[in-house]
Amino acid sequence: MSIFVNFMIVFWGFLMIVTMAIGGYFMFRKFLKQLPKEDGKSIMDWQEHYIEKTKNMWGLPEKELLEELVSPVPELFRDVARQKIAGKIGEVALQKKANKITQDILIEGYIVATPKRDHKFLKKTLRKKNIDTAPYQSFFEASKDDYAKNWKSKYTN
Hints:
By secondary structure, the chain is mainly α. It has nine helices and no strands. Helix content is 71%, strand content 0%.
């Protein structure tokens, strides 16, 4: 065999190993989210719980705004992102004992649910819709890492 064929076989093998490792990484992350925590429910269970509890609280304008906010997410991952963000918005709404998901609750929940790098798009979208971002500045200043650990106590302060 020629050197070129040998090189292509090695390259193809390496490429297959890398793609399998990447796929395995994402599958393992999903698996970890399905594992029950101390309270007996997993992260995914809580997301579904909050979505189920608040599904009647969503109005059409809020649904459309959520769709617009998740639009930059690649279509393959959009459903997962929408569910995660809607779950966190539902959690915020239930924590505030709201009867309806308002634009304020939606924006606050979106900020809490997304990493700091996504806030730039949110600010741009809010400016386009003539929505003032000043009331949400404290949420923008806190990073995703700050929310991940004990976010409820920091959120209520």
